[in-house]
Amino acid sequence: MTLSQTKTVYIWGDPLDFSLSPFFQEHCAILAGDRILYKIFRGNAEEFLRLLKESRCIGANITIPHKIDALSLCDKLTEAAKCAGSVNTIFKENGKICGDNTDGTGLLKWLEIKGAELKKCAVLGNGGSARSIAAALSEEKCDITIFGRTEKGWEKSFGSFQDLSEWKDDILTISTLPFEVKGKSTINIGYCYGKISTDATMMLAFQGWLGAQRWFGRTLSAADFARITLLHAKAQSNHGFILSLVNRYEI
Q: How crowded is residue 108: how many other Cβ atoms within 10 Å of its Cβ?
């Protein structure tokens, strides 16, 4: 396959300097016998839609702040995307641009492996990723409380709402906040450059695994996909540590 024949996948968001996706997605595609160029895109919706319509493009990932904007770019939405009210994965089907949301499903896959009980759960934050996670937990018949600063209205569809100051560390908690929350039963899924927890890495891995299945119709096993993602997360962490030493000691 020549470079001109190589299929393209995009990730649309900003900031993206810390994104692991280009590394593990290209790596996993090669191991599965496929080849893609996974490209970062930071432009506007109109330009992004033009790229999606290109014949070489087989799909995309969407991250903050564009998950809700991506809804209007799609010809068709999966039930998961409709329920979550946002899109994080785009794929093509019979020439149509289709939107899916694998945030909640990716997390559920990891929680299942961890053996977590999903009877009662708190979700910290009520942004786009929190909604998709609450939707997935609701499908599991979990009793959910969403904690945030200001109620947005969607929370009552999946559980109840309380002010963030009311949260107590006494049940399984999924934190979507952009900083680490300490808690004995807290899973932090936010991450930044050079600092990504195992929980966040595994959620990202299973999101990516589901996306790759949409693009190719097949991919590596979930376990192999997770292993490759962990490998790249570790490499990024080491790189961040080396850079901190360079900056600190002016090497």
A: 20
Residues involved in catalysis: 67
According to CATH, the superfamily of the domain at 3-101+198-246 is: Leucine Dehydrogenase, chain A, domain 1 (3.40.50.10860)
Give strand ranges (E) for the chain. 7-12, 36-41, 57-62, 76-77, 89-93, 96-100, 120-124, 143-148, 160-163, 172-175, 186-188
pTM value? Answer: 0.88
- What Rg do the C-alpha atoms of the chain give, in angstroms? 18
Residues of the chain with CATH 3.40.50.10860: 3-101+198-246
For CATH 3.40.50.720, list the domain ranges present in the chain. 105-188
Report d(CA 92, CA 108) in Å as an integer: 25
Statement: residue 129 has pLDDT above 70: yes
- Per-residue confidence band for 128, with pLDDT thresholds at 50, 70 and 90: confident
For 193-237, what is each residue's pLDDT tens digit? 557 889 999 999 999 999 999 999 999 999 999 999 999 998 887
Q: Does the domain made of 105-188 have the CATH classification 3.40.50.720?
A: yes
